[in-house]
Amino acid sequence: MIQNNEWSKRFRNHGEKDFKFIVGNESIEVHKFFLTLQSTVLSAMLENTNFKETQTGEMKIDGFKFETIKAVVGFCYGEDISSFMESTRNAIDLLMFAEMYDMDNLKDSIAEYYSTKLTKENVADIYKVSRETNAPKLRGVCFDFIYSIPKSERTAFVQANLDPAIHDLF
Fold first, then answer.
1. Does residue 115 form part of some domain?
2. Which domain holds residue 102?
3. CB 109, CB 75: distance < 8 Å
4. Strands of the sheet with 19-23, listed across from one edge
5. With 0-12 CB in 10 A as exposed, 13-18 as middle and 19+ as buried, what is 25?
C-alpha cells in the first residue's frame, strides 16, 4: 500500500487545500487535484459547477468512518495506509468507498496488499466484498488463495465459508 510519490507528499504539506470531506463532526482537507486523479466520480463532480460540493468546496460523507476517509485521502497523497488495512473491516470499508467513487487504483492496491495477507479467517469476507465491489484483481487474489488450500481441505472450507452459488467454482 505504498505509492512512491514524494511530490504528492510534499504538496500535501504545502499549498492551500481546496476541498474538504466532512464526516460527522470531523473534517479533513485535501487538494481537489489529487482526488480527481484517483476517482472518476469525484472528478466529474468537481469539474461541474452545478454540484453543491463544487460550489461549497466541501462534501458531507455518510456511511463511512472518519478513519476510512482519512485513509482514502492518505492514499490519494501516496501515503502508506497498510496499517489501516490490517483490519479486514477497514479494507472492506475502503473497497466500498472505492466502488462508490470509482477508484480503481485503490481497488488494485488493496488487491496487491491482500495478495500476501489473506488467511482462512479473512478470505471469505474479502472474496464476498470483491464480488460486490467489482474488484476483479482482488477476486483473483482470493481465488488463488482458495486454490492454494489442499484439495482435501478446500471442499469443506468452501462449503463452510462461501456462498453456495459459487461452490462449483472450487
1. yes
2. 6-169
3. yes
4. 26-30, 19-23, 58-60
5. exposed
Residues 6+ apart with CB under 8 A from 135: 95, 98, 99, 107, 110, 111, 129
In three-state secondary structure terms, 22 is strand
Let me know if residue 63 belongs to a domain: yes
Whether the pLDDT of residue 157 is over 90: the answer is: yes
Any domain includes 158: yes
pTM above 0.90, yes or no: no
Number of structural domains in the chain = 1
The cell numbers describing 34, all together, are 489529487
Kindly tell me the sign of the dihedral angle through the C-alpha atoms of 2, 7, 8, 14. Answer: positive
Tens of pLDDT, residue by residue over 39-75, are 999 999 999 999 999 999 999 999 999 999 999 999 9
**CATH code of the domain in which 93 resides:** 3.30.710.10
Residue 62 to residue 82: CA distance in whole angstroms: 24
Terminus-to-terminus CA distance in the chain, angstroms?
29
Cα–Cα distance, 168 to 160 (Å, whole number)? 13
